[in-house]
Design a protein that fits this description.
- The structure is a single chain.
- By secondary structure, the chain is of the alpha+beta class.
- Helix 4 packs across helix 11 and helix 10 packs parallel to helix 11.
- The protein contains 11 helices and 16 strands.
Amino acid sequence: MEHALSTATLTGLRRPRPYPAVSVLTPTHRREPDNAQDRVRLRNVVAEAKRQVEADPAVPRERRMDVARQLDQALAEVDLAHAEDGLVIYAAPGEHQVWSLARPVPERVVLSDTFLTRNLVSAQAAERPFWVLSVSADRATLWNGGTDRVSEALAGDFPLARSRDNFDAERQERIGDLPSTFQDEDTRHFLRAVDTAMSAVLRDDERPLYVTGEPAALSVLDQVGSVIKEAVHLPHGGLAHGTPEAVWQAVRPSVTAEAHKITDTVVRALESARGHRAFAAGVDELWQSAREGRVRLLAVEENFRVTVRDDSGDHLVPAVSGDIDAREDVVDEIVEQCLETGADVRFVPDGALGDADGMAAVLRY
């Protein structure tokens, strides 16, 4: 199952496809007893997607069979033992993908000529992704970080490793010979290559970067590198060969502190906007401002959800979940629209926005 959404991946998902491009969304749960019905619910929604494809007269027989086969293959790849809060299946002629999201999604099936991506985009923004680069004299490992975990990222040239006759970096760390190890020209050359590889990853998927390693390694990286200079340095050795949990525990305090700093900055910006009449709140006002490209900064409380319906195309009004014309993911819709018009989107803890009712914005004009 997929977790990390890069700009290139999103572009690929959004390209037009032969009809039908099927998007299947369903909520999932991480723990018992809530997850007891996830498997049945998933099978049912996939069966509904196949029924809609079968009943659509615009889909030729061979294409119906192909898409049904893709849906079956996607279903077989789902690992609910590692489920998060939402699941998205994409299926089209000749292809399928399965995405696990750390953000709830409404249950729905959509047939179109493009995949429905707003929920992926919103989940990615909410997760505040970051990179962790762990370096030693003989290895550099890249980690993909999110809200509450890290996992090894096989991105670009990573992991990078070097071998040399009679070279034992771990032994040299134990006997305290690290300074001479990292002043060795071969090691410096290796760390330059690490910096170059990290630059390429950031060009494709720019995120905050944390770098871990022995102080001597970080010092040399600072001398020979470029992108590393802008990163948060964490003097913690051994993580290039470490476990995801060890890496997460090492970076967690810094990630948490940065999240608090961002929340404080967002709240101050919103307060300032009130005084300059550049403040907006409420789903209806934000929906219209987002469509007009007026939002400069959008703040969303992490668990804010609201169901609305379109009132004659001009306004959104409250609705009940399950209504025929209800829009249960309008928050994700607003988030995606704001991102597409260049707005800065920040998710903050529940209650951080006070009387703004879950969402607020600083407007451009």
